[in-house]
């Protein structure tokens, strides 16, 4: 039987995890990338396995993405005609990705992800008009098909590895479909909720979720998500764009350091 909590978990570590979950919820609600804080914090827990960390991270995150999805929908009213089909295929993609996560070494993905993030950062930095206003690209079925491709591919990535899923979703919605950063963030939260759910549907039967810890972090994630989504809606696209660049830069540094440590 898998223990509900790892041995040696003390109040200091719990406080660190709660703080990381709150900060992750805030970042995820604005622009995605909260896993940059939450997953590494879980991996610091004595006795936890990588599978348990990944599964518990998904449990905590799903509460935050659900909360921010509702907050954005109430205030921004994003169209669901693209978001819901994207969410459906993203759920399936995340389940598929989680099922092969143990078979595909993360080391193979990280250099590609860093390269993609550098391209994302440069495009966002040197095209200040990108995502300033909504100019929907493509029409009708072509718009939907591209959205489905984005949802399936990023959903699969989230199931396999995960860091920066929300960030990639926001950029894809801005750069490929033509939404502004605020509406892209609103749609990305709906899709990100589905990717978390898809991965959880795979992890729960395995008994990999540490429920008490995940639920505790979920409460903190909700609090951060409420604060982050309200700030993003109040401050608008410019604020989200700036934070987007900060999170992308942090992801590049974090994954670059991981690559260097693995190859050194």
In short:
By secondary structure, the chain is an all-alpha fold. The protein has one domain.
Short descriptors:
single chain, 264 residues, mainly alpha, 10 helices, 0% strand, globular
Walk me through the structure.
By secondary structure, the protein is mostly helical. It has one domain. The chain is built from 10 helices and no strands.
Which SSEs are present, and which pair or pack?
Blueprint: H1 11-30, H2 35-43, H3 50-76, H4 80-99, H5 106-126, H6 140-160, H7 165-175, H8 181-206, H9 211-235, H10 237-263
Helix pairs in contact: 1-2, 1-3, 1-9, 2-3, 3-8, 3-9, 4-6, 4-8, 5-10, 6-7, 6-8, 7-8
What fraction, in percent, of the residue positions are helical? over 70%
Any idea how many domains?
Answer: 1
Q: What is the CA-CA span between the terminal residues?
A: 37 Å
Assembly level: single chain
Overall SS class = mainly alpha
What is the strand tally? 0
The helix tally amounts to 10
Mean pLDDT: 88
Percentage beta strand: under 5%
Element-level helix/strand string: HHHHHHHHHH
